[in-house]
Design goal:
With 221 residues, the chain is of the alpha/beta class. 25% of the residues lie in helices and 33% in strands. It is built from 5 helices and 12 strands. The longest helix has 16 residues. The protein is globular, with a radius of gyration of 18 Å.
Length: 221
């Protein structure tokens, strides 16, 4: 518990002057403790033209990074800042730690404490809607909002679903045989960061050796 109290205190101290990060909530996290960390904060700021402020002053390149993103931000607002941070770490020429990871900080409601989602190996790619259509091969999920998710297979089978039956419907569409399959993810840029984390947390529950989730995530307008 000492670890969590330290992190929460760091968050509150870093969000001084009435700056508060409302962390996205998840029902369960596989990761609940990380050591050797430094943090960055993406604030929701209505006073700014793009409604976002990045504070990365406390980041240390050789540590595990905790990226605290306000759940009210959209992907359109947050992803460019996240890509910037990823590139800073990936392109570091000195003081680099290959073992250090990047995590999103969340509020795990099952333990009423912090939980973390690893996104170190994710590459975000911005696409227009027309460009996304050209990428629709193999198996993919298109996330428009919590109640509008499209699951499409390479055999043109498509199923509309929602967050409540997402995992079962993925299995219905994709897991029709034992051949390994790659699942590609497409996210509407107007999604809130809370919705994005909800989807990521749900997909962590898939637990299928026959489904590989691609590390390239497409964000479309």
């Amino acid at each position: 518990m000492k670890y969590f109290k330290t992190v929460i205190l760091l968050l509150l101290m870093s969000c001084g002057n009435d700056k508060i990060v409302q962390l996205p909530e998840i029902n369960h996290s596989e990761i609940s403790e990380i050591i050797d960390v430094s943090a960055a904060y993406l604030f929701y700021d209505e006073t700014k033209a793009d409604s976002i402020e990045l504070n990365r002053k406390t980041l240390i390149s050789t540590t595990n990074w905790l990226i605290n993103v306000d759940k009210r931000l959209t992907l359109k607002q947050a992803i460019p800042k996240i890509i910037f941070l990823q590139n800073k770490k990936r392109n570091a020429e000195v003081h680099k730690n290959e073992a250090a990871r990047n995590y999103y900080t969340c509020h795990d409601t099952s333990i009423n404490n912090l939980g973390f989602i690893d996104f170190t190996d994710i590459f975000y790619i911005k696409k227009s809607t027309d460009e996304v259509v050209k990428e629709l091969n193999d198996f993919h999920l298109i996330f428009n909002n919590l109640s509008d998710i499209r699951i499409t297979a390479s055999n043109s089978k498509e199923l509309a679903t929602s967050e409540f039956n997402l995992i079962q419907n993925i299995k219905n569409v994709i897991l029709e045989n034992d051949d390994p399959k790659t699942l590609h993810l497409f996210f509407n840029e107007d999604l809130s960061f809370q919705n994005y984390i909800t989807f990521k947390s749900l997909l962590n529950q898939l637990n299928s050796e026959n489904v590989i989730i691609a590390n390239k995530e497409f964000v479309f307008n």
